[in-house]
Amino acid sequence: MTDHIQFSEIKQALVLLDQRILPNREEYFLCKTTQDVIYALQTMVVRGAPAIGVTAAYGCWLALRQAMDQAGPGWRVRLAELLRDLEDARPTAVNLRWAVELMRADAAAAGEIGAEELSARWLAKAKAVHAEDIEINKAMGRFGAEAIDDGDTVMTHCNAGALATAGYGTALGVIRAAIEQGKRIKVIANETRPFLQGARLTAYELHKDGIDVTVACDNAVGHLMKRGMVQKVVVGADRIAANGDAANKIGTYTVALAAKAHGVPFYVAAPASTFDLRIQSGDEIPIEDRTPREVTHIGDHQITPEGVPVYNYAFDVTPAGLISGIATEKGLLRAPYVQAIKEKIGSV
Ligand code: MRU
């Protein structure tokens, strides 16, 4: 599945499969301005760290076109403002900042070129980021699949699949690669309250691909592990610190604790662009606090008493000590992570 993020030459727009209404309806959302892209990111029309990065790369190009229209010769100043707004759309997935910085660095390398020339350059760059993401996921999948055995039931949390990337997926890429290697794999997709990425999106894309998937409520994790029904856990990540601490969808930390208690190996799969080597530990990762409505309501129906506050932290951090390995496109990293990350991903 790769048509969920498309660039339309005819419309000169970014076209996104609307993940808010899957699996019931397959409708597309058109982004023609920076504000459209920010709205799509914040309301989760598109979500998942690498998909956010790809979207942001196209978003930079849309920002440039908008700056040219709005500011004429003053486009560089307007562009800088729009890129700052774009970069702040969501706080936890570092791939957003990574993509905007990549485009800024590209503009800096190009020097004092005209807006039209930069526009052509940035559109090509965004398309390259888009295409490369699929290749990165396939490489990551091959490395990660080393840790998966024939006959395993693999639990995953949230959606770290094709929909969360340009295609193939990170955690689901590991599962897809293991299946391509001939291993017989079953998947347990945790429901992932409140946005239900597991129940709606992971189940949707695996079922569509004919992969054996069963949805479980988030609070069934301990029970399923205690019964020996889970051999491995593989999840994605939104930001990984220099010491290997990994932020991912809320509930991931609880899954890792349960995995530790039951001796189930717990793996993270993420590309190099998800590592934030400016921060030393997970304590420095900003955690998105989303609207209470996602928790208080199911659709239009309110399920909590009026006036009762709720927590809606969208992510948590799993300490490196609970992680058995981190699959990346550069290899399967093992503890001690500070050293492995320095060697494979870069220096701090
Ligand atoms: O809030 P979301 O849906 O953007 O959160 C997504 C996740 O937590 C994913 O597991 C993570 O981005 C990895 S995606 C390959």
Automatic annotation (TrEMBL):
Transmembrane segments annotated in the record for this chain: none
Gene3D superfamilies assigned to the protein according to its UniProt record, in alphabetical order: translation initiation factor eif-2b, domain 1 (1.20.120.420), Translation initiation factor eif-2b, domain 2 (3.40.50.10470)
Pfam families, alphabetized: IF-2B (PF01008)
Domain of life from the UniProt record: Bacteria
Molecular-function GO term, any one: S-methyl-5-thioribose-1-phosphate isomerase activity
Entry EC number(s): 5.3.1.23
Site (Transition state stabilizer): 158
GO biological process: L-methionine salvage from methylthioadenosine
Active site (UniProt): 238 (proton donor)
Pathway assigned in UniProt: Amino-acid biosynthesis; L-methionine biosynthesis via salvage pathway; L-methionine from S-methyl-5-thio-alpha-D-ribose 1-phosphate: step 1/6
Catalytic activity: 5-(methylsulfanyl)-alpha-D-ribose 1-phosphate = 5-(methylsulfanyl)-D-ribulose 1-phosphate
Keywords, in A-Z order: Amino-acid biosynthesis, Isomerase, Methionine biosynthesis
Family listed: Belongs to the EIF-2B alpha/beta/delta subunits family. MtnA subfamily.
Physiological role: Catalyzes the interconversion of methylthioribose-1-phosphate (MTR-1-P) into methylthioribulose-1-phosphate (MTRu-1-P).
Name of the molecule in the record: Methylthioribose-1-phosphate isomerase
Organism: Desulfolutivibrio sulfodismutans
Underlying gene: mtnA
